[in-house]
Design a protein that fits this description.
- 38% of the residues lie in helices and 19% in strands.
- The protein is an alpha/beta fold.
- The protein has a single domain, classed as Aldolase class I (TIM Barrel, Alpha-Beta Barrel).
- Bound molecules: ligand PBG.
- The site of ligand PBG has 11 residues, from helix 6.
């Protein structure tokens, strides 16, 4: 045998020497849930170790992450039912919980990278990512709301705006509004290929943002399709996206790889709430080894071609010293 691949695996030094992919703190983005109030830190039942924070507690959490070298955060609001309406007006109201949270983080930690979520669902009395009219999700009317929301986020200090709604044309529409208002420096991380997935369940529990009626299949993608992701990516590219994101992560590594192979923009992946819940539940049962299962998961995203990984594991991998 001339080729014996095992020779390159014979010692830790050689294995490290030929390792193709690495994971560093700079690859990680930590999603954080926010609630109204003071001194609030309540665990999400289906996401052990993940909490909803009031703004004062959020700042403490951000500080402890920053000290660990984790500097990018994606914020999500839990909105009181009484503030929700058909047009998600709370999403751009001056003084809203979300806008105050963005401002507070950027004022206290100017060097933190704040990513904001643009979608109607947490503020919409119908629980959808668009305006609902006679059971239909209106596309172009929804863009107007998304534009107002994105502009409010930019004014509050967002570094990166991440539209997660899957309406057609929203990247171009938001880019234009940002540019017209002097926010040419604010980036767009598009949820390019976001699938209609069962793995968002714990997230919707955390925020109380599940659709009141129906499902999201007329705007989120069919999980049987791969080529459609290339169409979405091409549109986002043409419309001015700075990052292309795939969501969920683990069941869609083929899509991550396909976008990474076909586009020169940085690729982000969202290791979503249900993936986190699944791994944590198995660990809690003693069925999987914690560090090994989580590191293997995160490295698979790097191997597939993602540079930015949104993951609820972000803080623990640093806290537990697994990247050392
Ligand atoms: C909403 C949004 C969702 C997630 C991020 N933004 C849920 C949904 O589309 O219903 C899911 C994230 C997760 O599950 O961790 N636009």
């Amino acid at each position: 045998m001339l080729q014996r691949p095992r020779r390159n695996r014979k010692s830790a030094v050689i294995r490290d020497m030929i390792q193709e992919n690495r994971l560093s703190p700079s690859n990680l983005i930590f999603p954080l849930f926010i609630v109204e109030g003071e001194n609030q830190k309540t665990e999400v039942a289906s996401m052990p170790g993940i909490y909803r924070y009031s703004i004062d507690m959020l700042l403490k959490e951000v500080e402890s992450c920053m000290n660990l070298g984790l500097k990018a955060f994606d914020l999500f609001p839990s909105v009181e039912e009484s503030l929700k309406d058909k047009y998600a007006t709370e999403s751009y109201r001056e003084g809203s919980l979300y806008l105050r949270a963005i401002e507070a983080v950027k004022t206290n930690f100017p060097e933190a990278c704040v990513i904001t979520d643009v979608a109607m669902d947490p503020y919409n009395s119908d629980g959808h990512d668009g305006i609902v009219e006679d059971g239909e999700i209106l596309n172009d009317e929804t863009l107007v709301v998304l534009g107002k929301m994105a502009l409010a986020h930019a004014k509050a200090g967002a570094d990166i705006i991440a539209p997660s709604d899957m309406m057609d044309g929203r990247i171009g529409y938001i880019r234009q509004i940002l540019d017209e208002n002097g926010f040419t420096h604010v980036s767009l991380m598009s949820y390019t290929a976001k699938y209609a997935s069962a793995f968002y369940g714990p997230f919707r529990d955390a925020l109380g943002s599940a659709p009141k009626k129906g499902d999201k299949k007329t705007y989120q993608m069919n999980f049987a399709n791969a080529k459609e992701a290339l169409i979405e990516a091409q549109l986002d590219y043409q419309e001015g996206a700075d990052f292309l994101m795939v969501k969920p992560g683990l069941p869609y590594l083929d899509i991550v790889k396909s976008l990474a192979d076909n586009f020169d923009l940085p690729i982000a992946v969202y290791n979503v709430s249900g993936e986190y819940a699944m791994v944590k539940a198995a660990i809690q049962n003693g069925w999987l080894e914690e560090e090994r299962a989580i590191m293997e998961t995160l490295m698979s995203f790097r191997r597939a071609g993602a540079t930015a990984i949104l993951t609820y594991h972000a803080k623990e991998v640093l806290e537990k010293g697994w990247l050392k």
